[in-house]
Amino acid sequence: MADTTDPRLTPLAASLPATVPFVGPETMERQRGTPFAARLGANESAFGPSPRAIAALRDATPEMWQYADPEAHDLRHAMAAHHGIAPAHIMLGEGIDALLGNLVRLLIAPGDAVVTSAGAYPTFNYHVTGFGGTLHMVPYAGDHEDPAALIARAAEVGAKLIYLANPDNPMGSHHPATTIQTMIDAVPDGCLLILDEAYVDLAPDGTAPALDPTSTSVIRMRTFSKAHGLAGLRIGYAIGPAPLIAAFERVRNHFGVNRAAQVAALAALADPDWLPHVRAQVVDSRAALSRIAADNGLTALPSATNFVTIDCGQDGAFARRVLTALLDHGIFARMPGVPPHDRCIRITCGPADAMAAFAAALPRALAAAQD
Amino acid sequence: MADTTDPRLTPLAASLPATVPFVGPETMERQRGTPFAARLGANESAFGPSPRAIAALRDATPEMWQYADPEAHDLRHAMAAHHGIAPAHIMLGEGIDALLGNLVRLLIAPGDAVVTSAGAYPTFNYHVTGFGGTLHMVPYAGDHEDPAALIARAAEVGAKLIYLANPDNPMGSHHPATTIQTMIDAVPDGCLLILDEAYVDLAPDGTAPALDPTSTSVIRMRTFSKAHGLAGLRIGYAIGPAPLIAAFERVRNHFGVNRAAQVAALAALADPDWLPHVRAQVVDSRAALSRIAADNGLTALPSATNFVTIDCGQDGAFARRVLTALLDHGIFARMPGVPPHDRCIRITCGPADAMAAFAAALPRALAAAQD
Q1: ipTM greater than 0.95, yes or no?
Q2: Under 8 Å between Cβ of A255 and A230
Q3: Closest partner residue to B6 among A54, A243, A254, by Cβ?
Q4: Over the stretch A88-108, which tens digit does the pLDDT of each residue have?
Q5: Domain count, chain B
Q6: Residue where a domain terminates, one of A247, A269, A291
Q7: Min distance A205 CA to chain B CA atoms (Å)
Q8: What residues in chain A have per-residue pLDDT under 70?
Q9: Which of B24, B105, B160 sits opposite A69 (nearest CB)?
């Protein structure tokens, strides 16, 4: 691919990094010449979607010639009933990623201040940079994001947006609802908290504050990609105050949430049994990952998500060698990018065969990393 | 929905229209309280996708827990082979709509000039306005877009983008490849022609100029939504010079082209028989629509697309009454928005039962419109 830059780009676009920021596991597989034995790097749900969602999608395949409803009326109303809120508080998008992009576009002009945690979700940072915002990074407090420090920095720099994921990715930690509610109540005037709850369906009871979609201080992000097992279809949603939700209509790709996603998500939402099933599987898998870590002299951090972050006990260079060796041994995994969290590797929960593949590969990866 | 505006929007976002710009047929069905008998308003392909695409999608449903390949490697390489060009010249997106949005974002800063035809694709205008560009409208020449006038206006206003659809929507007209090549050769320095070829698979041979993806004057837009019958899955693509194609990596939603779309499009591309089948069906349907128009004393315009634009023989107010009456009689259709083209209604091709429903409704709609 040519590495020259098109001279017609806007000054902002020309200033953005030219490298591809997100490399998928398929690219790694092509580079290594063979598929991974276990796909444990993207926090997908290998427990799959609800059988009802699969059946609904199969039944709907002949209808894919029709554009989807741009209002996603049936799904949005079902979600509103599910959450006990009005549909005007819900906006769907092509995954949380697309919603974050549109939200940043709506609120961030070049030079506007945005506060997030150093090492938190890189796609959010990508969007902020992409619209010319200025990122202010707050360190984690240990292995937790630091709500009070995020609020303090936002007040100090006059931020328009604060990003916090609860539970957190990549550390798997979480704050209880009371802590998050205190944070919401402290959001400065003129600022908005993005509360990314992609993993909240997998967290302990008491992690999510009660929904109050009339609050103008916070917008909540949820997804069908994690516990619901529909990552490949791209559907997430935002819950927030009606005027902010309505503002998405000014910039979004109105026909972007595809018909397969709407059909499958509606069926998934109507299945009361699947999330409890997935939660039980995830609890088992977290325990398996903790045991595997302990068997190899490593420490698994507590997790409120469908992944376990494992402290490799040394520095970032060592953990990076462990990760590389895992990849060489057929395990797709990832790791935190920023010290001191880069002492860890991050392993997605999965069924027994995937756990067994990881258990077999880890000792060999550790041996290779010691060399 | 609250109609107040969130005070935190950027000045640009606050300046954008607050109304929902695109109303889907499902919304109209909810308003009328009953489904349409025939869905002939969105230029979807009621002939459906290739049976191979349907089968591939059904087989892939259990895999929807996996994010799709953000590079869409297999599909992009298959498309490159299909078109006889290198993969570096192809960018996939969530429909042409998403590609237009990203392209405008890359090239248009507030105040930059953009040239299009008055009455052409409104979603393109939506994106230009959304990024603060200034739209310059050129009238059609009769029922055709006017390539020479578009080029002249672009030179006059120093446009960074020109938009032309060939074949055209909403008029169904087309220019031969030689005319379009002359236009490409005349694009001013510093300007880019967006050649929207969404309908080109349905046009006569000799409509598309030969692909020359090294040309920096043009980017071509194609889609699986029209002839391929996969509108609901949202997948389109751009063909252009490698540095411009690479620039999309700076702003796009990398995981946005969903797995269902990639699977179905790959299977559709591998079926050599489906497009000829669809083309034959569309030819039959165009003839049926022309007959129905003539039977009612109206004139069908020549069409190079999967829709027929019918001149209702009077002014815009009359055609609007015809359209409203058609909707009342269960026919979802649309019409051009700008005079003098708003003397017409626009009817999508479809199978015999849909044509029969339109044939039954049109005389009643015309009678109602005369009142």
Answers
A1: yes
A2: no
A3: A243
A4: 999 999 999 999 999 999 999
A5: 2
A6: A269
A7: 24
A8: 1-3
A9: B24
